[in-house]
Backbone:
């Protein structure tokens, strides 16, 4: 497969960095090749690109997008509280996110994914709507935590997206043979 990839890059104005980073991550995946790989800035390739590209065939068997399950949590509601505890969001933002998940009927323990690595098929047209919904949830809520909103977009679009088109990668972001990870802190 032809593979393109993008990593997060810095923004001059820190006041808009969270918006720009999430927009680049979710809405602006490369459109060249067959598959794109997004990696947060603290993640890199652990093996030569050709070996990683070969592994992508097993990561994306019939799927169009693959993201790693969260190694520690399985619930967006629990993630909200973890984000407050780590000072990633305020209590006010937590209330907004919790209310949005509750109003949409997202079941507890629906699933949680770490969005540091996103593998996508470039030509999958349905991903345009998926990405737009995901980004708009952050934009309209003002809560810039993509991990909180991913379960909700999957839940809301679940009847429209064939289940085999979204894949939970069978690996941990922090401990796997293909990618390196260093802490944000």
Residues:
């Amino acid at each position: 497969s032809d593979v393109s990839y993008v990593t997060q890059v810095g923004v001059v104005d820190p006041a808009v960095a969270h918006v720009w980073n999430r927009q680049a991550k979710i809405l602006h995946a490369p459109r060249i090749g067959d598959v794109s790989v997004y990696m947060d800035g603290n993640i890199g390739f652990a093996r030569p690109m050709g070996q990683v590209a070969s592994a992508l065939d097993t990561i994306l068997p019939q799927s169009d997008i693959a993201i790693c399950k969260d190694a520690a949590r399985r619930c967006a509601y629990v993630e909200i509280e973890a984000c407050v505890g780590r000072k990633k969001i305020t209590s006010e933002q937590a209330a907004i996110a919790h209310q949005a998940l509750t109003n949409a009927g997202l079941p507890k323990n629906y699933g949680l994914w770490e969005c540091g690595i996103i593998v996508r098929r470039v030509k999958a047209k349905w991903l345009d709507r998926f990405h737009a919904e995901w980004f708009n949830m952050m934009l309209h809520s003002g809560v810039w935590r993509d991990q909180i909103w991913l379960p909700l977009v999957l839940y809301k679009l679940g009847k429209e997206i064939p289940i085999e088109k979204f894949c939970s990668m069978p690996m941990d972001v922090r401990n796997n043979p293909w990618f390196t990870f260093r802490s944000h802190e």
Remarks:
- The longest helix spans residues 126-141.
- The CA atoms of residues 11 and 17 lie 6 Å apart.
- The first strand starts at residue 3 and ends at 7.
- Helices lie at 14-27, 49-59, 76-85, 91-104, 126-141, 146-157.
